Amino acid sequence: MDxxxxxxxxxxxxxxxxxxxxxxxxxxxxAFAERGYHATTTRDIAGRAGMSPAALYIxxxxxxxLLHRISRIGHDKALEILESAADGPGxxxxxxxxxxxxxVRWHAAHHTxxxxxxxxLDALGPEHRAEIVALRRRSGAAVxxxxxxxxxxxxxxxxxxxxxxxxxxxxxxxxARWFNVDGPRTPDEVGALYADLVLRMVxxxx
Amino acid sequence: MDxxxxxxxxxxxxxxxxxxxxxxxxxxxxAFAERGYHATTTRDIAGRAGMSPAALYIxxxxxxxLLHRISRIGHDKALEILESAADGPGxxxxxxxxxxxxxVRWHAAHHTxxxxxxxxLDALGPEHRAEIVALRRRSGAAVxxxxxxxxxxxxxxxxxxxxxxxxxxxxxxxxARWFNVDGPRTPDEVGALYADLVLRMVxxxx
Lengths: 206, 206
Prior knowledge:
The first copy, chain A, is mainly alpha-helical.
């Protein structure tokens, strides 16, 4: 269960209060990851959290509200990671390196949460989905900005900037699918490997 | 619905006979993709195929048997694509280019099937899962063989061959998650973009 893992000072779900609301969110992540959103009931989630369905209802009116909260927190974190790298110090190569390392580490360390966040988008209601799509656009724009600046400075050679941005994000996101805590690589090691591969993808001059 | 799309002469599910068994498989892919494996019943699948639950039972004893059949066909096709590229003509760069193009095209053109194949592995029974994991290892080995040959011939510069193999496969597989038939790129265009990016990842000499 990665729901309580730490990542660079980020204590998962610490933004969710009170404690009962946080326990329900952690239970929902685990249930959605294990059985899928549509096969999970609010009763299942309450049971996993050791609470009654009535107690759940105090904090979340619907199952979709739980999914939205999870998705929102995950996407806010992704955006924060990518914008802070894009706006940080250093040249485009240093910023792209930092963006990829942090984004990969997050998807590896929080792979259960990240899978729910990435695979259950279609289960969000239309308004929530539009809100999340807007956050995803901003995340993509942060990465695209770094790559475009590297090209403009003559440091990167990228024939298709939007396509390469899409591929870089996709490569990092898919870490959540295959990452295995019992596997041979730590989140930091995958981050370092991927930062190198992405700098190659953009033809970064050494 | 991509279940009937063609890809390089491959008519989806043409290996499944009789027609009723094929219709049930197509219905299962759509249901699993839309609601998830655990939220889908054999009654749902029979209904989508316009058949009775009793008629389904003639062809498939359990829901897991349907998932296994889908997963097996998808993984057989992936292995065929990657081994035929690995064993094909040309130097390592030409073979890696061909492997990535075909693998990406398949994941784009058959993205609904590919999502089920990739995301529902945990729902397979232990024996079926072991069988599929073995096919996945062989697919990975085919790609790793091309990369290792490129390195041995002094044409690729790859510090971490297993890690880079994993990243290349992951990049291609994740096309199934984000590919949108209404998006700006065709499966062929994504294949060409990704072949170029992968050749950069392995430091291929032009």
